[in-house]
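Researcher: I'm preparing a figure for a lab meeting and need a structural model of a single chain. I don't have an experimental structure, so a prediction will have to do for now. The sequence is pasted below. Please return the structure as tokens so I can convert it later.
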Amino acid sequence: MFKNNLKIAWRNLVKRKGFSFINILGLTMGFGCSILIFLFVQFHLQFDNFHQNADRIYRVNTEEHRDLIDYEAAVPPGFANAFKQDYDYAEIVAKSADRNNWLITLDENGVKKQLKADIAFTETGFFKIFNYPLMDGSNAAPISEPNTALVTEQMAKKMFGEANPINKTFVLENNQTIKVTGVLKDLPKTTLTKAQVFLSFDTLKSYDEFMSSESWGGINSSLHCYALMRPNQNIAQIEQQLQGYVKKFRPNSKNVHHYKLQALKDIHFDDRYSGGIDAKSLWIFSFIGLFILVVASINFINISTAQSVNRSKEVGVRKVLGSYKRELFWQFMAETFIVSVLALVLGIALCLLVLPSFNTVFDLELSFKELLNVKFLGFVVLLLALVTLLAGSYPGVLLARIAPVLALKRKLSHNDTGGYLTRKTLVVTQFVISIVLIIGSIVVGKQLKYAIKSDLGFAKDGIVMVEIPDQIEAPQLQGLKERIMQNSGVENLTACFASPGAGDNNWGTSVKFNNRPEPEEFNIQVKGGDKNYLDAFDLNLVAGRNFFEKDSVDEMIVNEEFMRKVGISNPNDLLGKQINVSSGFAKGKIVGVVADFHDGDFHEKISPIFIAPEPRLYNELAIKINMASAKNTLQHIENEWSAAFPDYVFEYDFLDDRVAELYQTEQRFLSLIGIFSGLAIFIGCLGIYGLILFFVVQKTKEIGIRKVLGAGVTNLVGLVMQDFLKLILIAGIIATPIAWYFMNQWLENFEYRTPLNWWIFVLAVAIIMAITLLTISYQAIKAAIANPVKSLRIE
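Model: Understood. Here is the structure written out token by token.
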């Protein structure tokens, strides 16, 4: 019976090639999208689930409570050892400090070789907490001694080729000679640690005394503390006990710490602590994939129910010959199954075809291997069953219940085969999904444009950012600046701690104002820079003057937000007031006030800012260049820089690129929602095209009579199109509040956001309307200009 059903189903599909093609194409795209989203979601859900005790691994984070709450995936340097000594909640506690893009220098038979790598300084317990095994399979990391290191297998090949790396040495940041004592298996892509070289934690003393100390005076965002907790611990109770550390180690600080234990499985999905992706985004992407499938299934249902009238004679004959309802139902399900299987195979092929482009857009490395596992097989089977039931069950029931007498006499109405109301409801659902996705694309794109194109309060175009070594002396730096400025393509130059924005090198610290006895409730962001800082970044001085550079800092500039935070309304009233930054790190009087600028992205409020000429902070050159001669100017900068620092690798990037990188997550979200909006619209248009073909056939006699009675082409085209335009308007009314709610929630993530204008919703409806009219116009016009004599003769 099943074999016979498949044969008949195949013949029916071949007989109606046009409609079969529309159904298969729509479902192919639906399957392809769903598989891509499945791979995307599965990739993110796999993060750090491979560790042996993943359910007991926690990272200790800090909530810094001042006037606002800041979230740091870090702790003070003294926390880890205190936690180990004072409590027995954890089996192992280990610290780790990250450093990105550090210089590694090797000597190969007298030839110097240099490369950059991400570094982690770790305690040996780190490798007992996490399952990052050595090549021999063990976790006994031999880096307890200072200046010892583990390297990943891939990094070992970059450094030493095919030679045995054990006991070989390299120089780190032109400072310490490090010995390789072990080789790690390459780390999975789905892990929070991106380091390629792991050094003993004691080695950190040579590079950063603060982080290798037992201080509780501050937090460096790159210093992490991990713990393998004992089984069945009450995490909330432990966090409550940790509040005692605030009174014990930070009794007079206005920056109140709350130490929080974050489960390993949650780290990747918490954007407060710079997680990889927000969990909400995964849900959104999953629902988009489901909606695409729903749109494709609605196409199938609409076209199938519309054809029910044409297939009524077949059903009537089979019922008269003794077929039962269940046999007719399963016959139609067999047709749906064949279409679904064909579409699934084509969908997998489509997925593989676009996978390289998908990887490029979302910075992934997904491959065909991701499809060869039990999870994917289970997903595909579930997907096939879901689509077959969703698309086939309703039309199958309608066909099976057709009365044979009415079918053979051709007296079936549309209500007997599902009715106009059902099809209209399904079409409206398609339009609602498409309109919501279009509104989402417009709002996300508008917010991105607003964030990137808005006046940030500082110049970012044509500014090259170049790192300078920490050990540079003031005369050497001054000589380098003068030589770079000799090129006519260089317009300005400043040495600084960080650019005004782009969120780089943030340092938030305490501040005392006007000799007040207590520090302020808020933190101040430090932006050290020389006398050219204001001009190079085109900062607007609203009161006072620029500072003078001296041997010691005694003059400084603040921004308008600082003025508001200390309760002053006139910037001139700030001039001459004393401030003390970071417990005496810099003290002096305020000589100028600059207009506010965005020191982070648009998710964050503008911070109080402090700018002063502090050479101890300088680690970058910001060079304003004429882009018309950029190539020659950059070559000049590289030549002068390399002559000054022959032991370092010259690297640069543009400030506007750094700003754009802050919105990579939103850019990828826009790409995804834009792509799938287009697909949803295309799939919906396929269904509309199929319906208009059927609709025109059903209206043939009516159109012929109207034309004989004098109706013009415009009237007849309007007759065909009016129903669809009404459905789009209804869909727009339904979609508007849905889209407004979700996009308003999304925009709440931004402190500075674009408004949800009314025209966005009108434009989305207009886009759908235009695309729909374009889809059906050819068939509508063809029917309107047809010879009415032929139409009536056929009827």
